[in-house]
């Protein structure tokens, strides 16, 4: 999991953070805002329209932004459907999200009512139809590089240069760039761009304007943001925000 070094300044206000281990498989989600979940060597940005499946026995950590709060729901497989043994992403339609909310209210109840059994059956059906490969932001092993990644995930608009980061974590520029690429497969600049795009898609899914998203994730112009977004997703940010894939899960 990613951890922040004391010498890296915390964003203000502080973000609610949490850690846990899934004794049983769980769906992690938020009802508002954005939550960043880290599992093993990867991190995922979750708006209310997206959830993360974490299998049993797996450690995870999280921090919330924009008034987000992590929630979870335990889910076990059945004789006819096995739950995945690896982390997976889920699209959350308004219906799927409401099912999770209702089922969470009954989760701590003694025994299993007919209602809770029906809710879990519906959740399993939605779960199976909404699983996606869990592309992640790869985290480096070096603790100094981990702290850079944590700071960028906490504030994607952070425009510190490679030299700034090298001074902050006590590395030479050459060592930082070499080790970062070796451990993540990407340059720091490309990794930060991916983090910004993850943040951008999360905010667009929440209905924020393209202009606001562009500036708040760190781009100096809407044109630059739109060009990079199109190169990565094959469509403009405004078209993405209007697309069926996003409109269908916004609620």
Describe this structure in words.
With 251 residues, the protein is an alpha+beta fold. It has 2 domains: 116 residues, Jelly Rolls (Sandwich), CATH 2.60.120.280; 108 residues, Arc Repressor Mutant, subunit A, CATH 1.10.10.60. It is 43% helix and 18% strand. The chain contains 10 helices and 10 strands. Strands 1-6-3-4-10 form a 5-stranded antiparallel beta sheet. The protein has a 5-stranded antiparallel beta sheet with strand order 7-2-5-8-9. A hairpin with a 2-residue loop joins strand 3 and strand 4. Helix 1 packs antiparallel against helix 2.
CATH H-level superfamily of the largest domain = Regulatory protein AraC
> Class by helix and strand content?
alpha+beta
Sequence stretches where pLDDT stays below 50 over 5 or more residues: 1-16, 247-251
| Second-tier CATH architecture of the largest domain | Sandwich
CATH C-level name of the largest domain:
Mainly Beta
Provide the gyration radius in Å. Answer: 19 Å
Q: How many domains would you count in the coordinates?
A: 2
- Regarding quaternary structure, what we see is single chain
Question: What order do the SSEs take from the amino end to the carboxyl end, as H and E?
Answer: EEEEEEEEHHEEHHHHHHHH
Main sheet record = 5 strands, antiparallel
Strand order of the largest sheet: 1-6-3-4-10
Q: What's the overall average pLDDT, rounded?
A: 84
């Amino acid at each position: 999991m990613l951890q922040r070094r004391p010498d890296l300044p915390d964003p203000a206000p502080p973000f609610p953070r949490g850690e846990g281990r899934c004794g049983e498989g769980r769906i992690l989600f938020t009802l508002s805002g954005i939550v960043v979940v880290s599992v093993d060597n990867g991190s995922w940005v979750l708006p209310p329209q997206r959830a993360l499946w974490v299998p049993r026995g797996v450690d995870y950590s999280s921090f919330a932004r924009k008034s987000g709060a992590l929630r979870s729901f335990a889910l076990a497989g059945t004789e006819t459907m096995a739950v995945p043994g690896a982390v997976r992403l889920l699209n959350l339609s308004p219906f799927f999200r409401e099912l999770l909310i209702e089922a969470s209210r009954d989760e701590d109840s003694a025994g299993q009512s007919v209602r809770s059994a029906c809710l879990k059956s519906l959740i399993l059906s939605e779960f199976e139809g909404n699983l996606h490969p869990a592309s992640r932001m790869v985290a480096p092993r070096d603790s100094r590089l981990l702290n850079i990644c944590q700071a960028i995930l906490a504030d994607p608009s952070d425009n510190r240069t490679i030299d700034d980061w090298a001074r902050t974590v006590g590395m030479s520029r050459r060592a930082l760039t070499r080790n970062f690429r070796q451990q993540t497969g990407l340059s720091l600049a490309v990794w930060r761009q991916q983090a910004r795009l993850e943040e951008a898609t999360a905010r667009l899914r929440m209905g924020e304007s393209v202009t606001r998203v562009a500036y708040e994730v760190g781009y100096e112009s809407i044109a630059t943001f739109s060009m990079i977004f199109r190169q990565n997703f094959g469509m403009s940010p405004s078209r993405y925000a209007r697309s069926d894939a996003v409109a269908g899960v916004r609620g």
